[in-house]
Predict the structure of Tyr recombinase domain-containing protein.
Amino acid sequence: MSPATIKINIASLSNSSLRQYNVGLKKWWKFCLSTNTGVFLASINQVLRFLTNEFENGASYGPINSFRSAVALILGPEIGSNPDIKRFCKGASNLRPALPRYNVTWDPKIVLDSISKWFPNEEIPLQHLSGKLATLLALTTGQRLQTLIAIDIRNIEKTEEHIAIKIPAHLKTSGHQRLQPNLILPFYPEDPTICVARALEIYLDRTRHLRNETTSPFIS
């Protein structure tokens, strides 16, 4: 694969993916220097040797798979589809499964009970309303923080039943075959203390005179 092609391939990655791949590429570079292996011309056996070294150094399936993807970025997609490498990764998964990202979970009811006391929305301090809105948005949509930051008030539409928010901005989860997020925030008259749509509505009204040219709903 030519350097120009590699450069274009790298441009396809998000910043967070690039940081993740950077770890694997640095390890690959050091391996190639220490074993006199061609960085861009390595064989399947040499890649397997590299992955084996990392496994023996304690890497679990998650990092091993990430290293494989990083190397495939510069050597070509056959690295990811090669039967021997796929079998190796399956073996690594069986011998040393990836650990769960979170060791504990938490009860959202505790949070909801707490922020429900921040009411009425028209009277509580703006800082409390801002935190309440951000929390309710995260809980009701399940979206990443990056998505919530990308909300633009020009893309907010209100109906009698809900508030809809379109997210046209490019995100980490964006892809040419994936639809962009469309957040639906239903009004919840059963409990207005935790109604995310009403909280957003009041927050936008209370901050209208503060935002000037800012199109992000959250202001500092």
Summary: The mean pLDDT is 88.
